[in-house]
Every structure is written in structure tokens, then in C-alpha cells.
Design brief:
alpha+beta, BirA Bifunctional Protein, domain 2, binds phenylalanine
């Protein structure tokens, strides 16, 4: 037999559901929730009335109150979820995002092949205890030639076609060898073990084989009792790290005014390389650097006493090594900055 108290529960349910349907946004839903389920809410009040219900109807009233509570709660959950979905759809229409579009291409940069090989060379020599030194590209005649045992009018100057500046006695260095003098003057009287990587300039006709600018890596070791055997050992160790563990090193007599004796160094080229004949002009040997024992005049120009110390020096061309390793047949490609070329490294 439904009585007044149970009827009130039914009304609560009907009104609650109607008010819920009328809620237009999340804020209204929150207010609704406070009204029905807050501490001073209608549901709590309805449960509070249980004491006034006649004893024999209390159980039925309690059951009905619980049913209404669950009905309102679940209706609220559903409405809340609908409201959230509506909000999401609205924001998706306001800021349309097509997730099926392909992503935007971000080009990835990389190091220039010249930088790569310079780092590799520096790494190999660093493992052998050589420090890296940098010296200037604009030099004086005194450093580029005179201190290297080439006084004015020395015929050997013709080995380097030079860019002179409009200031007398100032030029673009034709090789990294003047760096030897800078290092010696800064380091004397201590022993030296350095490499000097850097750009050099020569006034040459540009062709597939010669550029007016190119890198060199100079090497210099000064100390008591350094011999040609140390030079050979250093170069052999370098060549094997750079070109493979089987490489043979061949030394030929040569001439540089700043080394005595002077040598040129060849390595044997792998027999299995199909480019071997072309790269080595049929000999199987390939020149990788000029080198020698530092001339006493040069030691003196650097402040060292040739009676106390000796030393070796070498100079190599990393662009040449790159050309060999990757069978690049035109040296001009290195500074043209054509991405189609650079991307291959
Ligand atoms: N500077 C020489 C050149 O440019 C190379 C070299 C360096 C030779 C050091 C001997 C010692 O050709």
C-alpha cells in the first residue's frame, strides 16, 4: 500500500530526472548533484525521514529510497558522460584536425664530409696522444716561408702558388706547416705532440684534381731522441686505423725545405677494390702525405736547440683521403654545397 512517504520518494525521482534532463552544461550538472546528493541534499533528507515512517513500512520505504538513489545516480552518470562527449565534439569542430594527413617533413642536418673526416683523423691521433692545435689562415711571409727554411727568392717557394694580400708580407697560408713554428714558440722548451688541422689556399687553376682551398692536417712531434722510426710507426698506426688493418706503408725519398730527410708516404691499396688500378695509376700504391725529420733551421726558428731535440713532421690532405675512400672523382664537389652530393655521406 503506497503511503505519503513513498509517494514523496516517487515525486523526488520524477522531478530529479526532469531537472537532470534540463541541465545544459557541466556546471548545471554540478549544481544538480549538490542539490540531490550534497550534504544538505534532497536524497539525504529523504533517508532522514525514515524515522518518521511507521515501523511496518520502514523496510519498504528504505528499499524504495535506495532504488530512487541508484536511479538518480546512474542517470546523472550517463548525462555527465554525454555532456563531456558534446564538449569534445564541439572543440573538434572548432579546431579541425585531420589525423589521417601525413606528417610534416623535417629535414635532418648532418656534418659536412670534410668535418667528418677531420674529426676522424683527430680522433685517431688523439688516441696516440696528439693534441689538436689551431692556427691562423692569414699568415706572414716570415712564417709561411722564411721560418720554414725558405728565405726570399728560394726556388722551393715555387712549390706553393701563393695568394698574396695587398699588404706586403701578408698572405693566405699555402700549407699548415707555419703552424709548426707557432706551436714551437708557444711550447718551448717542453716536448711537443700535436696535429694542426685547417684550411689552406693555393692560387691554382681549379680542376677536378685541384681546388684553391682545401684542408690539411699537419703533425708535429718534438723531443729528445725522436727518430724516423717514430715517424714511420706513427704513420703506419694511423694508416691502419684509417684504411684498414692490413695496410702496408711505403716510404719514398722526397724534398721539402723544412724537413731533412724528407719523405713521401704511400700505402698499398686493397687488391679487392675494383677502383685500385685507377686510383693508384696501376702501381697499387697511393701517396697519402709528405713528411720528414724537422730541419735544424726550423727547430731553431721555433726556439729549440737541434743539439738537444729532434722531431718529425707530416702534412696530409683529408679531402684527398675522402676522394679515395668514396671514389669521388671531382674535388670541386666538396665546396659547392650541392645537397645531392653532401647527403650521400
Ligand atoms: N707542407 C707540405 C705541403 O704542403 C707537407 C709537409 C708537411 C711536408 C710537413 C713535410 C712536413 O706539401
Amino acid at each position: 500500500m503506497p503511503d505519503a512517504a513513498t509517494d514523496a520518494l516517487k515525486t523526488l525521482e520524477t522531478e530529479g530526472l526532469a531537472e537532470l534532463r534540463a541541465c545544459a552544461d557541466e556546471a548545471a550538472l554540478r549544481a544538480w548533484n549538490t542539490k540531490y546528493f550534497g550534504d544538505k541534499g534532497l536524497m539525504k533528507a529523504a533517508f532522514g525521514k525514515i524515522g518518521g515512517v511507521p515501523k511496518d513500512q520502514r523496510a519498504a520505504y528504505g528499499q524504495e529510497a535506495n532504488r530512487v538513489k541508484l536511479a538518480l545516480e546512474s542517470a546523472h552518470q550517463i548525462k555527465l558522460a554525454e555532456e563531456k562527449e558534446k564538449k569534445l565534439q564541439a572543440s573538434l569542430t572548432a579546431n579541425p584536425l585531420d589525423v589521417t594527413l601525413p606528417g610534416r617533413f623535417r629535414p635532418r642536418g648532418r656534418l659536412h664530409p670534410a668535418t667528418q673526416i677531420l674529426r676522424q683523423i683527430s680522433g685517431i691521433f688523439a688516441d696516440m696522444g696528439f693534441q689538436v692545435y689551431r692556427t691562423r689562415e692569414v699568415e706572414t711571409d716570415a712564417m709561411n716561408f722564411e721560418a720554414l727554411n725558405m728565405p726570399a727568392h728560394h726556388p722551393a717557394r715555387d712549390m706553393w702558388d701563393t695568394f698574396f694580400t695587398t699588404t706586403p708580407g701578408v698572405l693566405l697560408r699555402t700549407h699548415t706547416s707555419p703552424g709548426q713554428i707557432h706551436v714551437m714558440r708557444e711550447t718551448h722548451p717542453k716536448p711537443i705532440r700535436v696535429i694542426l688541422p685547417g684550411m689552406c689556399y693555393r692560387n691554382e687553376a681549379i680542376s677536378t684534381r685541384s681546388e684553391i682551398q682545401f684542408h690539411q692536417v699537419e703533425g708535429l712531434a718534438i723531443g729528445a731522441g725522436i727518430t724516423m722510426a717514430d715517424l714511420k710507426g706513427t704513420i703506419t698506426a694511423f694508416a691502419r686505423r684509417m684504411f684498414g688493418p692490413e695496410r702496408q706503408v711505403r716510404i719514398r725519398s722526397s724534398y721539402f725545405p723544412f724537413t731533412e730527410p724528407s719523405i713521401e708516404v704511400d700505402i698499398d691499396w686493397p687488391k679487392e677494390d675494383p677502383n685500385r688500378d685507377r686510383l693508384t695509376k696501376g702501381t697499387g700504391w697511393l701517396e697519402i702525405m709528405g713528411a720528414g725529420m724537422v730541419h735544424p733551421h726550423v727547430l731553431r726558428a721555433g726556439g729549440y736547440d737541434p743539439a738537444e731535440v729532434t722531431g718529425f713532421a707530416f702534412g696530409m690532405g683529408p679531402q684527398r683521403m675522402l676522394m679515395l675512400r668514396h671514389a669521388v672523382d671531382d674535388i670541386r664537389l666538396f665546396w659547392q654545397n650541392d645537397l645531392r652530393f653532401l647527403r650521400q655521406f
